Amino acid sequence: MNRDDLKKILSDVKDGIIEIDDAVNSLKDIPYKDLHFAKLDYHRALRVGYPEVVFTEGKDIEHLRRILIDMLNRDANILATRMSEEVFENIKDISENMIYNKIARICIINPKDVEKVGKVAVVTGGTADIKVAEEAAITLEAFGNNVERVYDVGVAGIHRLFLNLDKIRDANCIVAVAGMEGALPSVVAGLVDVPVIAVPTSVGYGANFNGLSALLTMLNSCAAGISVVNIDNGFGAGYLASMINKGFTKNGGER
């Protein structure tokens, strides 16, 4: 339930369209619905503007099915992250209306048409970083943001970045995804006047330490205007970028 849903319920009560008891029934699961093994936060969109997202990795299949079915019964637009193909095969029967992206490992269940605003550029150092970048990009699109994808423009061939700067600079926020030494966000942040969200990936050889070297590089960047999320956390980067982009657009920003 979001703010618009709550306003409609209150307006319908005021206008006599629905009874008070029916309105109370609609609100009964605020602040959450208790399934014992999970507490579904149907109040979240009302509080923070975005609904609860389901992290699927590690969940028991039957628990996951019950969570998703309960959300479907509320006609929710469900974003389910870190979903393997095996898990998708086990839950795809719950709805005929699903979009699954095996690269991003994201499933959107019962997708709604969402008006998209502003623009976020999602940039990668290499092709191997795309699975994390796509997690960010699809999260952004699901939350109503226009996305410009600029892939494989890392510092090893920095001319590729320079030749795509116009597209990158046209965004209200930038998600920069890189593994190896993780230098891309620092370079990008020195060339733009908008926030850069750095995403270290676990792509790299042994001394990359599964993304730790990239994470430390990004945390130690001398370029200002960078925030850093956890290793491979495309979803977290997309969520934060959406908040920045929508805040910029809401306040009348144009580029």
Automatic annotation (TrEMBL):
Signal peptide: none
Coiled coil (UniProt feature): none
Keyword tags: Isomerase
Gene Ontology biological-process entries: 'de novo' IMP biosynthetic process
InterPro entries named in the record: P2CMN_synthase_LarB, PurE_dom
Residue ranges annotated for the PurE domain, each copy included: 118-250
Pfam families: AIRC
One annotated GO molecular function: hydrolase activity
Enzyme Commission number(s) from the entry: 5.4.99.18
SMART domains xref list: AIRC
NCBIfam families: LarB
Name the UniProt record assigns to this protein: N5-carboxyaminoimidazole ribonucleotide mutase
